[in-house]
Design goal:
Helix content: 25-40%
Number of strands: 10
Number of helices: 9
CATH superfamily of the largest domain: P-loop containing nucleotide triphosphate hydrolases
Distance between the termini: 37 Å
Low-confidence stretches: 131-137
CATH architecture of the largest domain: 3-Layer(aba) Sandwich
Number of domains: 2
Length: 274
């Protein structure tokens, strides 16, 4: 069975000006990274701040176009416009294949939208392609069905249906992250990128959110790319671990191998620092 996600020699460069009138330079955020994620597994990506792990996650989620390389999800190139007759329709259809949970639940929700509207927004944006991942227009869900799916998902993440009529400022950080998870899962994606989803939460709330993610993975047969600088979280959540340093992939292996017999000096340094 082929991997669900294939990342092939992916790179991302950013231009940067030094000073107000200085010359432009290039920042190599991600350099020639290749990874695969199998159906149903959790790949943990770990590294220090600035190592490129979040940039890699955003490219895998379809939010940031790479400078080079290729990303395939279910065998389909995510950024190759020539491979799709209607690229816009294809990208809309991917809302039912890949989604992302962001780090900060305070900034990832629109403060002017009620929770029910925020959670169901992905369904409305891609409603014509939800039932078909190849870009062919499918049955368009009506508003009643969209609302029902949103309320059902709020219930599944531990929030009552009455949360749909309230605004983000009425919820705690942990509750907002549950809302963000509900929004990511409402389209029934197969692949979810979790970018430091618990780093801004209190320790007691972190475990609740992590357990929720594990439960939803089992129930919905999800595949995760889990990004974190917290080694304990990575060890708890991951089946395999990829270690990044200065934009490069320096080591990859099973969670047990990485934590008990690391091969790269940087991986050993990370483990020794805990």
């Amino acid at each position: 069975m082929p991997p669900l996600v294939q990342i092939r020699s992916i790179s991302k460069n950013f231009s940067q000006r030094r000073g107000l009138f200085g010359a432009r330079g290039v920042v190599h955020a991600v350099r020639e990274v290749s990874l695969e994620v199998a159906q149903g597994e959790t790949l943990g990506i770990v590294g220090e701040s600035g190592c490129g792990k979040s940039t890699l996650g955003r490219m895998a989620a379809g939010l940031l176009e790479p400078s080079g390389g290729e990303i395939l999800i279910k065998g389909k190139s995510l950024y190759d416009r020539k491979a799709h007759a209607d690229y816009r329709a294809f990208r809309a259809s991917m809302a039912g294949v890949v989604q992302m949970v962001f780090q900060d639940p305070y900034s990832s929700l629109n403060p002017r939208m009620r929770i029910g509207e925020s959670v169901t927004e992905p369904l409305r944006c891609s409603r014509a392609w939800l039932a078909s991942a190849d870009g062919t227009p499918a049955v368009i869900p009506d508003e009643a069905l969209i609302t029902k799916r949103g309320l059902d998902m709020l219930e599944r993440v531990g929030l009552g249906s009455d949360a749909a009529t309230r605004y983000p400022h009425e919820f705690s950080g942990g509750q907002r992250q549950r809302i963000a998870i509900a929004r990511a899962l409402v389209t029934r994606p197969g692949f979810v990128v979790c970018d430091e989803p618990t780093s801004s939460l209190d320790a007691s709330v972190q475990s609740q959110v992590l357990n929720l993610l594990r439960t939803m993975q089992d129930e919905l047969k999800l595949t995760y790319c889990f990004i974190s600088h917290d080694l304990a979280v990575i060890r708890h959540m991951s089946d395999r671990v990829a270690v990044m340093y200065k934009g490069c992939l320096v080591e990859e292996g099973t969670t047990e191998d990485i934590f008990t017999a690391p091969r790269h000096p940087y991986t050993r340094l990370l483990l020794d620092s805990v």
